[in-house]
TrEMBL record:
Keywords tagged on the record: Glycosyltransferase, Transferase
Upper lineage: Bacteria, Bacillati, Actinomycetota, Actinomycetes, Micrococcales
Domain of life: Bacteria
Originating organism: Diaminobutyricimonas aerilata
Pfam families given in the database record: Glyco_transf_4, Glycos_transf_1
Protein name: D-inositol 3-phosphate glycosyltransferase
Gene Ontology terms for molecular function: glycosyltransferase activity
Domain Glycosyl transferase family residues, every copy: 215-366
GO-annotated biological processes: carbohydrate derivative biosynthetic process
Every Glycosyltransferase subfamily 4-like N-terminal domain range: 25-204
Length: 406
């Protein structure tokens, strides 16, 4: 570290706490991984605290997004209602948090979830006078299907989940979430105020747009193949277009709904048109997005949708459910279309609008996706978090504070 460094440019020592982190595949894990790598590229020392991905636990150096960082893998158990999720042991988290913070002595703790790791780190950080920043990716709909809680008790459970979230986030100096709608959602369910909307961001330059005309009709979906993603509606929509447009659907991702969806595709007579790619490499994912004609996101529980941003960075028009934060990315009639959540008929109609657009109109939608996603480049995101880490004010949309402060 150079002696001439000023407080505004001095590298920071940052602890990022996650209940889910790579190799897990979901939006929260991907955001934490990309943010950590970008911070390392900016010269900061980054430590990740996360559940071990197997029975092996300890501290070692890992490479994520091409960058080396220290990862503290906590002893974890498998959450068996979920197909792969592991969790850090709740009764050990405060002792582990105190130990790690005493060893690392960070300038700031940034937790990504209140459930286990965020709770322990925020408590230990406050005890030590360490600045705390919290980011919320939590949606009850994403969690309930794996809790085994009877439906009659689910609303009571959701209220308890929000109370737990509130306790952890009230310890933070600033609370963020990916979009303004997600911020309003968090504020409506807790006593939190002034939640900041800061995009998850992505490395826009990692994706390749093919702005030429398409010779076939390829629809692509990327995400967890689970109930709240409503991929069944997408398969039903494709079935409506199979004879008219010879549509092919590629589903990139895996989850507990894969077998039922394969059965549904067979039942609807489109099994030969629906390709389940499963979990794939980053290279495969990017190629799938580049060669597709349109991206479809029928999910009803997106706080931002990194997958949708990846598609937009690949120059794709998007057809998405008019739910939660998706309208922040999909501007109806500009870079694609919104449809009524759960309405497979309307989804089919909007896919038809994209796939039958004139070459000029199709190119306009592609270019608008590129224009919109440019503001979500990871560099904008990391600079905003650097300001928060240093205690500098930012506006409600994550920009440097001017007329509005958080």
């Amino acid at each position: 570290m150079a002696e001439s460094s000023t407080p505004a440019t001095k590298p920071l020592r940052i602890v990022i706490g996650c209940d889910t982190f790579a190799p897990d595949v979901n939006g929260a894990a991907k955001f934490a991984e990309r943010l950590a790598a970008a911070l390392v590229r900016h010269g900061h020392e980054v430590h990740i605290v996360a559940p071990a991905a197997s029975r092996k636990h300890g501290t070692w150096t890992e490479v994520h997004e091409g960058e080396r960082m220290t990862v503290h893998r906590l002893k974890s158990w498998r959450w068996y209602p979920h197909p792969w999720l592991r969790f850090a042991l709740p009764w050990q988290i405060e002792a582990n948090s105190r130990r790690i913070l005493d060893e690392v002595k960070p300038d700031v703790v940034h937790f990504q979830s209140h459930i286990v790791v965020g709770r322990g780190l925020s408590v230990a950080a406050i005890e030590r006078g360490i600045r705390v920043i919290g980011t919320n990716h939590f949606m009850p709909n994403n969690a309930l299907q794996f809790t085994l809680i009877p439906e009659a008790f689910q609303q009571r459970a959701v209220k308890a989940m929000w109370r737990a979230a509130q306790r952890s986030y009230l310890r933070a100096e600033a609370v963020t979430t990916p979009t303004r709608r997600a911020a309003e959602f968090l504020e409506a369910n807790t006593s939190l105020h002034n939640v900041l909307a800061i995009s998850c961001g992505l490395n826009v330059s990692d994706y390749t747009a093919d702005l030429g005309p398409r010779t076939d009709h390829r629809v692509v979906f990327v995400g967890r193949v689970e109930e709240e993603k409503q991929v069944d509606r997408l398969i039903r929509a494709v079935a409506q277009l199979k004879d008219e447009l010879d549509v092919q659907l590629e589903i990139v991702g895996d989850g507990d709904q894969r077998r039922p969806l394969e059965a549904l595709a067979t039942e609807l007579g489109v099994r030969d048109r629906v390709h389940f790619a499963g979990r794939v490499s980053d290279e495969y994912l990017r190629a799938a997005l580049t060669r597709a004609s349109v991206f479809a996101m029928p999910s009803i529980a997106e706080l931002q949708s990194i997958a949708t941003m990846e598609a937009m960075a690949s120059g794709l028009p998007v057809v998405a459910a008019d739910a939660m934060a998706l309208p922040h990315l999909v501007h109806d009639g500009e870079n694609g279309y919104l449809f009524e959540p759960g309405n497979a008929d309307e989804l089919a109609a909007r896919l038809r609008d994209v796939l039958t657009a004139t070459p000029e109109r199709y190119r306009e939608m592609q270019q608008e996706s590129l224009n919109i996603v440019a503001a979500h480049d990871i560099e904008n995101t990391v600079r905003t978090f650097e300001r928060l880490y240093r205690g500098e004010p930012v506006g409600a949309n994550g920009a440097p504070a001017g007329n509005s402060a958080h």
